[in-house]
Specification:
about 475 residues, mainly alpha, Fumarase C, Chain B, domain 1, two-stranded antiparallel ribbon, two-stranded parallel sheet, 20 helices, 6 strands, about 60% helix, about 5% strand, elongated, binds arginine
Length: about 475
Amino acid sequence: MATESSPSARGRGVSGGADGSWSDRFEEGLHPAIERFNASIGFDIALLPQDLDGSVAHARMLGRCGVITTAEAERLIEGLELVRAEAAAGGFNPGLEAEDVHFAVERRLIALIGPLGKKLHTGRSRNDQVGTDLRLWLRQKIDGLDRALLRFQHALLAQAEQHVDTLIPGYTHLQRAQPLSLAHHLLAYVEMAARDRQRLGDVRRRVNICPLGAAALAGTPVPIDRRQTAAELGFEAIYANSLDAVSDRDFAVEFSAAASLILAHLSRLAEEVILWASEEFGFVALTDRCATGSSLMPQKKNPDVPELVRGKAGRVFGHLQALLTMIKGLPLAYNKDFQEDKEALFDVVRTTEDCLEAMAILLEEGIRFRPERLEQAVAADFSNATDVADYLVARDVPFREAYQLVGGLVKRCLAEGLLLRELPLERWQALHPAFEADVYAAIEPRQVVRARRSEGGTGFDRVREQLALMRQRLDPIPAENP
Ligand code: ARG
């Protein structure tokens, strides 16, 4: 470290390092534009609580291992807590000269407690430090996202419970296919969210491994105890290899992939709500809580919320791509490229949090399903055609033969402007003698839905079963951590 005996490092006014300057190797200060370019303090200040937690654990461990005295460790910890208190009071606002949050904390510590502060960085490097901070941060964010997903699931479930008996056209290729219980449709998204939560849980296990003590890349001759710091910080394990420890960003990629799927799911639901809210579909009405107007067209009510969710999905996918690209050409071990992981990860987390919350609110109070419109839609189409074929199948006609017959019938109905239920019984019997008067009940939409009793199907009984199961499986939404 530069001292009063190396005035050259300080003479230029601009310098780096935790102690106001780099080592004595440096004689000149950074170019101001490069100082700005190099600095991450503008965004990594978000890691301050984690940086302090990591440093407290490190200091305590140094004391316990006899690297410093316990009194020194205690003094370091007190100093770090002073920084925390200053930050809480709004009095810790490091500028660019600090470069990053790690240096900022160390500098402030030295300013507060004097030269003893210079012992904190013993046996560690910013390389293992930043990895530790980021993992601690992400671990907590994952827990918050899990809660947000749970709320989203509850919002879907509450709508589903209202609409077991409401019918909605089911589509394939966005063509009317077969009618569904609306609850069944909504429960599909509850299942997707359940997988999203599982995926986050998997990622969390790999986030929760501690790199601290890998030091710059090779470990340290200082007699540290990595397991102590890891345990104190709540990590489940430590990295086995110091090079891997400081250069692994798989967890950031994996997390962003899991978040991308969350956004993909949200975006699909968003797209459906946008369609449903159109005049053409008319399946939902947007309440004033989540809809916006047009500056020009007074009649408009726009689905901005789902549109934004659909749009923001692209941001998250983009960050995933950016992170993959960032790591693909990096030789071991730490490279400054890694500094780019933070803004990507921060934005992935913020966007995912925001979109989950917005979609939950949309479901809770932003849309009202319109059962009359849905019912009308289902009654006036040919989405019961499969059931006519199935009617014949139940009377021992081979499916493929029944399929052909019904296809021809639909064609004639379309030409004549008739629905299947409007055909007189003679026409049915002319098509096949197996038809009897009960065909009308069999093709009635509600019966069509009821009949799909296969496991996982839309039959009302099955849907009620699934709802009850989900109710059981979903925990109540816990209060947020302080
Ligand atoms: N600000 C840096 C980052 O975000 C911290 C680690 C810097 N390490 C280094 N050797 N320059 O990655």
